[in-house]
């Protein structure tokens, strides 16, 4: 997506398993922020990202299945980073660091046998797999994802805004639908122009879309927060309803600071926010398009 931003997946898909973890690594550090809109969030270390608080940079974002149990995957991410002395310096020696790893989870427990969920080993393995190139669809945190009555997954999208590159990664697991049940047409035409007949929806409480929007601009924490807020608009364009009481919709923002934000700052930031909504909507579409049918849950591509 963005230079300096790596993505890794680890998952188990098979008898009794359909869950996993996705890690967005920024080993050199990046300014971070978060915006949460759903009524049922499952998050870790998000208070650190408040612009009023001390820590300015994060070193990874951990996205995981497993509901609140899956927050344990971030422990493995911290271990991987600490072994490489990457983190917030708290002592005199290079290895005296505390890695800053905010995270969020999706509710995918019914897709696996009870007790089968990500732990710290998933986070560590996802870091080991992190690269500039990575798979999409039913991988990592998207392994057990659903969106309404369809199979969800991991998707990405990116754009260029002036001298800047902006990208988004979404784990699509919303309670809402990507297709209008009345017309059979997707809310966003880029999913497909032909009407489809949706499977009958079963109210199982599978919900929450989480993700990351990243940019190479030198933004402050407060400016990053505006980016994360704008990305939530993209989620609302692609999934309806969004931000329900049964969703924990959470979007993180990262700014690597590699390219100065030029021109009148407010206008340049506004252009990035506009793009953030577009690319996050595109990432949601990508996650739905790339997903494959699994465990009796039909994918959009198979309708």
From TrEMBL:
<comment type="similarity">
    <text>Belongs to the peptidase S58 family.</text>
</comment>
<dbReference type="InterPro" id="IPR005321">
    <property type="entry name" value="Peptidase_S58_DmpA"/>
</dbReference>
<protein>
    <recommendedName>
        <fullName>L-aminopeptidase/D-esterase</fullName>
    </recommendedName>
</protein>
<dbReference type="InterPro" id="IPR016117">
    <property type="entry name" value="ArgJ-like_dom_sf"/>
</dbReference>
<dbReference type="Pfam" id="PF03576">
    <property type="entry name" value="Peptidase_S58"/>
</dbReference>
């Amino acid at each position: 997506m963005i230079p300096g931003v790596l993505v890794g997946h680890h998952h188990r898909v098979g008898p009794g398993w359909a869950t996993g973890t996705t890690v967005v690594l920024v080993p050199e550090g990046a300014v971070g922020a978060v915006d949460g809109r759903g009524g049922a969030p499952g998050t870790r270390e998000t208070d650190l990202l408040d612009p009023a608080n001390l820590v300015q940079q994060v070193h990874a974002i951990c996205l995981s299945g497993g509901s609140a149990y899956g927050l344990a995957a971030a422990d493995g991410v911290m271990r991987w980073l600490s072994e490489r002395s990457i983190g917030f310096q708290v002592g005199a020696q290079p290895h005296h660091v505390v890695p800053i790893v905010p995270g969020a989870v999706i509710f995918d427990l019914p897709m696996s046998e009870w007790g089968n969920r990500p732990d710290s080993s998933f986070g560590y393995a996802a870091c080991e797999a992190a690269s500039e190139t990575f798979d999409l669809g039913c991988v990592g945190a998207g392994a057990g994802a659903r969106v309404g009555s369809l199979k969800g997954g991991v998707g990405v999208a990116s754009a260029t805004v002036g001298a800047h590159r902006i990208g988004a990664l979404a784990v699509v697991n919303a309670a809402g639908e990507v297709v209008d049940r009345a017309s059979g047409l997707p809310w966003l035409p880029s999913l497909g122009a032909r009407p489809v007949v949706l499977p009958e929806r079963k109210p199982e409480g599978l919900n929450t879309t989480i993700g990351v929007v990243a940019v190479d601009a030198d933004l402050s924490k407060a400016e990053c927060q505006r980016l994360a807020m704008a990305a939530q608009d993209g989620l609302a364009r692609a999934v309806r309803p969004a931000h329900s009481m049964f969703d924990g919709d959470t979007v993180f923002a990262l700014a690597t600071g590699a390219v100065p934000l030029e021109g009148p700052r407010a206008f340049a930031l506004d252009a990035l926010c506009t793009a953030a909504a577009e690319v996050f909507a595109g990432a949601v579409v990508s996650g739905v398009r790339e997903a494959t049918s699994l465990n009796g849950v039909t994918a959009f591509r198979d309708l």
